[in-house]
Model the fold of this input.
Amino acid sequence: MKKLVFLSAVAVAALTSCGGKLGELSADNFKVVPNPLVAESGQVPATINGMFPEKYMAKKAVVTVTPELRFTDNGVETAVKGQSATFQGEKVLGNDQSISYKVGGHYTMKANFAYQPAMQKSDLYLTFNARVGKKEVQVPAVKVATGVIATSELYRSTITSANPCTSQDAFQRVNEQKFDATIKFLIQQAELRKSELKSNSVQEFTSLLKRIAQDQEGLNINNVEISAYASPDGGVSLNEKLANKRQKNTESYVKKQMKAAKIDANLSSQYTAQDWEGFQELVKASNIQDKDVILRVLSMYQDPQEREQQIKNMSQGFRELADGILPELRRARMTINYETIGRDDDQIFAQYKEDASKLSVEELLYAASIADTDAQREDILKTTTNLYREDSRAYNNLAVLAMQKGNNAEAQKYLSMARTLDAKNAEANANMGLLALQQGDAKTAEDYISRAAGANNLAEALGNLHLAQGNYALAQQDFAGVNSNSAALAQLLNKDYARATQTLANVKNPDAMTDYLNAIVNARQGNNDAAASYLRSAIQKNPKLAQYAANDLELSKVSK
Done:
């Protein structure tokens, strides 16, 4: 016993002779923020505020402090080291932070660990590599924090029930259409010439009237309009009478054609005595010599007679107008406003069964969107890829079905096909981003989603990205109006428990993760009985959650 006391005294004397002593440090010398640690964006950051007590740091000592997160991963004891920091005594010549022997010293160091699920049940230690002069000194490791709250990492699970981005069809059963035909008149005349009535546009006008009458199911007429014009030369009084007569003659002709085709529709007509607006448009589009001068005259003078006189004063310019512009303004325009009526839902499905090749790509994509079952949807989309091989949308929508089934490998295959056909397919890029997020790869996800501008349902994809990146406030904004597990997780992480509860109550197809999130929300609010009930339900739906919950600091207490 005397020998042990003697050896201890010798050791103390040796350390004291070096200007101080190193020994065991207490957890009270350290404060870790946060404690427990919290996983954020795939990382576990920690700020360590430490203190070397007075008369601790020997004047010739050098101490390297290393954070070390210790946990068990599949039965294997694992330790992950963080960034070290080195400190030195007063008499050491070096560039590290110097600590006074007499008064001690405070310091702050940062640590960051790449998150692993097993870290939830872990301990943060500080280890020390110390020497005084040339002699190594053993300083025991100190446990400074316990456990990692990994609620934010649940996004990898919540995202599996997110709504992928479906490419939209452009199918419209009823489409507004308009057909224009023009009759031209000779200068200062209003008679309908036979040569004009035999023109292609007029003949097509009368043929369309007949087709509408014969195809009541596929075509529907809204109304017919007539607009008659006189060119701006010749004076207002003359042009007034001329344009009026052109209108009446054209109206009479149209009424006769409608009667012959047995078309009953509203007919309206009007005339413009001096078509200065049409004149200006034609001049702008022309290459005549005095184009800019003429346009300037039109802007400077509002009186029709003054305009006409100023333009006539440009002899060369007026000849070009008389030959190339004015004849085009002596006209009457006949317009049929009508609708094309496509197949209804029953007709589309009937045609699909009979001969799908007679359906347009828009009809097929539409049919897939309203099909009763996923099996029907898949069949229609695969048919679409065979008939319209250059359209990327069907491949993307097949990927959506695969993602909803949890078959990510198949989804990846279809998305690759979609992007090969169209690398700018916004929905395909967004869905590639969602797949990357499921793998915890937020960087790749951001790259894909940045190319998804204009994608259908992009806000939800952005919400999941921002959730993975730790930007919970922005994620909650993205999820506005969305009732999903991911939306509730964003609200939970923002400590908006009331909204999170409401969102979870409105999830369309609640699953084990919905119950799990409900358990966390209630646990955070101190409702342990409700939390335990939701947790039991979650584990019943997905037994794999039992082990996860045992490690989860938020639920480990209520699960007991």
User: Anything to note?
Assistant: The first strand starts at residue 30 and ends at 33.
